[in-house]
Structure formats: C-alpha cells, structure tokens
Amino acid sequence: MSNGLTEQDYGIFRRFLEDQCGIVLGENKQYLVKSRLTPLLGRFRLVDLSALIKMVVNGSSDRDLRPAVIDAMTTNETLWFRDGYPFDLLTEKLFPELGKGGRNVKIWSAACSSGQEPYSIAIKALEHQTKKPGTLPGGVQILATDISHSMLSQCQGGEYDSLALGRGMSDERRRLYFDETAQGTWRIKPNVRRLVTFRHFNLLSSYTLLGKFDIVFCRNVLIYFSPENKLRILNGIAKSLNPGGYLFLGASESMPTAVSDFEMVRCNPGIIYRRK
User: Ramachandran region of residue 12, left (φ > 0), alpha (ψ -120 to 50) or beta?
Assistant: First the structure.
C-alpha cells in the first residue's frame, strides 16, 4: 500500500475540490490532503490515495465517499464568541435597531462548522432579552448552514466535551446554558437549541430558497475561495440580506471593491457591512 500523492493526482484533486465546494488549495498542500484523506482508505477499503481520488472524481458507486472526502477537507476550526466584538455589536447596536416595532430578527450563520457561532449568537440573544426585556419582542430566528454533513450532525446534537467548551466559553455561561451528561460531556440547553435551525448548504449553490435575513455571519470562510467565487458568494449574500441588513466578515477579511451592494460601517472595535 502506498499513500503517496503524485503531482498529477494532486492537480486533479485540487480542481475537483474547487468545482465541488469552492475551496482553493495552494501549490504545495499535498501534506494536508494526505493527512486528511489517508484515514478514509481503511474505511472505504481502498489501496492508496490515487485510487481514492480516481473514485471520487469519476463518481464512486459508494454514495458515502464524496461527502466523506468533502467533510475531511473542510476546515472546522472554531471557538465560542470568536473575536468578541461581533457579539458585543449584536447587543449594543443591532438587536436594538433591528428589533424595533416587534420585528423578528433573522440571522444566518454561514459555514457554521461545529455550531459554536450560531449557539453563541443564540446565547447573546437570550442574555439581551434578560437584561433588556421587551427590546426583542419578535424574538430571534437563526439559520446555521454548513457543507459538512458530519459537522451538522454534531451541531444538531449540541454536545461538546470540556476541551471544546474551554475555547471561549466561561464557567458561568457553561452553568447557565449547558447540562452535563452522564458521559461527562456538556449538552446545550433546549432554550438555546430551539433558536437555531441547521441546514446543509454549499455556498456555491443558489441562495433563492434560503429566505431573507437581517444579519449574516460569514466569517473566516472567504479566504478559502478564489476571487471569482468570493464575488459570487458576496453577491448571493447581498441578495439574501434585507435592505439595511448587516454582514459580518472575519477580522482579517475585507470587502472587495468590485462588490457595490455594501457600505462599510466602522465600529469601535471592528467593521461591519450594511446592505445599501
């Protein structure tokens, strides 16, 4: 058995991955592909990576292979209340502004990974309603999407180990919003869970059926896409946002000048983008 990856196989796989989900691999990321895909060889009884790539590109009779490969190649690094300021802006600016008149505030968490972002948003909404009763009379509705079926399954379970909770979740919030299980893990409480709906979605798909939103979180995602696909995704998000709605990008991401549907709003700290 050889787990080597030829230049030809790597080139074929790079094109496949970008076509399927927009992820762009650099020139020298063979090590990443090998480390992510090698564990699948035993599961699918394949002799080497060349055989795996051939099967997934040409269309395997095993319907589980392609989703497993995309799951393996999706970056799933995340933490609770990541970067801090987006969640502070929710309670200080966006909830009071968008909740006026009894409106239901609709939020989309795109590429939600293992669920920390949408659940952090839900916790912030509950905290805001507790501290300022009546300022969100219509409530909050959160849609969380990801391309990875395994991540969505984990999200829906809402169960995390102590290591995962240690990445940004305070002890006080853990006590308030999680129940400890007999296995020593922590499960999100129903009052948080009911605010979030999870759904499979590829950011290169049509946005028509997603509905309209007041706030979109699409953070630390666009860095994995080509410039052309970045524009395609941002234009899709713009069409999904209500006029005056807001978009959060990652702290290291910026809006391309070719996208004209947004205006920058400087906050202290951070930047958000408002749909014109």
Answer: alpha
- In this model, does residue 61 exceed pLDDT 60? yes
- Say if strands 262-266 and 241-248 run parallel, antiparallel, or are unpaired: unpaired
The predicted model scores a pTM of 0.87
pLDDT band at 1 (very low <50, low <70, confident <90, very high): very low
Q: How far apart are CA 81 and CA 101, in angstroms?
A: 28
Could you tell me whether strands 178-180 and 186-188 are parallel, antiparallel, or unpaired per DSSP bridges?
antiparallel
Q: Most confidently modeled of 21-25, 79-83, 131-135?
A: 79-83
| Residues 177, 192: Cα–Cα separation, whole Å | 7
pLDDT in tens, 77-116: 689 999 999 999 999 999 999 988 788 999 999 999 999 9
